[in-house]
Amino acid sequence: MTKDIVFRTSLLIVLLVVGIGFYDPDLLDKVSTAVHTNIINHFGWAYLLSAFLFLVFSVGLAFSRYGNIKLGKDHEKPQYSYFGWFSMLFAAGMGIGLIFWGVSEPLNHYMNPPQHIAAGSGDAAAFAMRYSFFHWGLHPWAIYIVMSLSIAYFSFRRGMPPLISSCFYPLLGDRINGIAGYIIDILAVFATIFGIATSLGLGALQINSGLAHVFNLPNSTASTLVIIGVVTVLFITSSLTGLDKGIQLLSKSNMMLAALLLIFMLIVGPTSYIFNVFTSTLGEYANRLLEMSLQVNPFQGYEWTKDWTFFYWAWWIAWSPFVGLFVARISRGRTIKEFILGALLAPTLLTFLWFSVFGGAALNLELQQGANIGSAAVSDASTALFSVFEYYPLGDLLSLVAVILLLVFFVTSADSATFVLGMMTSSGSLSPPLAKKLVWGLTESAVAATLLLSGGLNALQQMAIAAALPFTMIMLLMCYSLLRALSQEDRDLYSNEKF
Amino acid sequence: MFQKALLPLDIHETETEIVSMANYINQIGIKYLRLLHVVSPGWGNRKQIMDKLNNLGVLLHSFGYGITIDVREGYTPGEICEAATENDIGFIFLPWRRKSKVYRTLLGSTAKEVVRLTDQPVLVYKSFPENGKEENIYRILYPTDLKGAAARAVPYVKALGKQASAVVLLHAGQRAADPVSEEKRQKAINKQMGELKNIFSPYFSIIESNSSIGIPYRNILKQVDDKLIDLIVMGRFNKIPIHTIMGSTSVRVVDQARCSLMLIP
After folding, report:
1. B236 to chain A nearest CA, in Å?
2. Domain A2-490, what fold?
3. Reported ipTM
């Protein structure tokens, strides 16, 4: 009975919220907007401080004497090759978002920067690239690392179930198997299901835009629902075949396809311009990392910070239970140093390259060639990428490749989320029952489809972000708990003062 | 170990307070007291101070103590520590004056500063006449983390066995990182606490052993109240940099415990 408390309670809460969203979307919207607005208005600074702390914590830990501790037993070897590991890290962490925002985020910042920067200027372009790097760079990965490192350490090194609640054993003791532990795990399920359902809904809309662009398919709710249906069949099939086969195969092939698209754009596009953008933005990013990390813009541009930076930080934190559990699962056998540096640097550099290629190409079109794609990107972010492709040879083919990338990234994200949800609601079993995975897979799609119909997707996203606030506290405590466990291990290893 | 003590006085002590202190010190077996008063440079009438100290010395002498009087100028906690070091003192006997939290926050406390600065054993004497408790040393609390600092207090606890009849051993530690390690830790602690019990068994008729998890100073304070402890004897827990900011276990116990305590550096 207690084994299924997390499963039953979280499923009940999800269905309840979705029920409200279906029958009275206005009510859900009103409540979620109030909660979301209050959290962002009053605790945005806390997100910034925490994310910065997580980055310092991660880097500090990598280079500390704990860096050589393995996430597993001392003799264990990493389960996946570097390529497989990076591919899955990237696919689960941000793959989908990069396709969506790779063009539209730099263009959005360029067209609508904070009020102290002139819109459409060279300064705005530099700002746009720098903040795109910032929002998708080291901080999100540091957030994921804190979560996944704790889970991996307590699970693989300390032999506890891979659950978020397990990370609190040093602080809570056996109470992790009681109400306190259940609340933590239910909150994680809540954030994961709402996050993935929102992404599924919004992603289906973008796929629809892409297909409409390439094949002139109707951009309607019915076709979006069909897309959700197709994605559901694909990710449930992938999920039921198991992690090793399904997700790894899809992630690797998608990474190769993404790399091909990236290389094509780099060669065919304004190559030296892109490298100039990459180099100078990297320099600015490195130079102003501390300033951006703690910049709330209280005097000018606070609204912009609220809309973008606070939103992103809350979103990454809300996503962290899902990504953290998944990344932990695939990182067994690596040392803490290898894990942190790998997860922090490799995806970040690839992300920077992606933004430089796609964002740089878009800014080149806008600034140098007078193409008017900025306003289109602002009015509909989902079409920005396809607008850029129009100016390139084989534009339709590129759009089709982007749609395939979107589709596969969706499948891998939803597949990973289904696996993680199954794991979280099966007391951390690494082989969650198929029935549970099926229930969660169908629930994700049903939630997305239902709220797409009733218009409650935005409200759902806000609910997911609201879950980020308690999770920030949870993650801060997690850092403390992990440090305590590591120092204990350190004492056991290096001193004679044993119990 | 308990032959010579340094007794800093601010010469505003009443006769009752001095008698109370004298009775308390008597239980420990002190033979010789060095009375110390520190004045701020350029302040205070030396003759008046010496007269008052002489009067207090006479009163204490009537209890059988050998008395030496010392008056110094300077920063009070620093001078107390220096006097203790220079004169080969067994321990510093510090009467605790209750002050409001606001006063303590703004002006600090001499006792806390001495505890922080000195390398000598310190006995912080706290009197709570309103409790109606006799100021006898019957029950001693010995908190330990089973490490070097706590081990240094063992001879002092043994020596106090002549006076006290009961000792409560308290292990204050932190939970291990997983249930299996925690079980091992508990077993190891039980074994070591058993050994500690054997060490103290010739000196005390009642020995109680407890183990606690969590913030050490809170657990110590809880035991003081639950077990009606008369005196805490503790080694100063290993210092880590964060203690400089947050305050060490010893300093917190000094501040908040509702009984006297002896700190062994």
Report:
1. 17
2. Amino acid/polyamine transporter I (1.20.1740)
3. 0.74
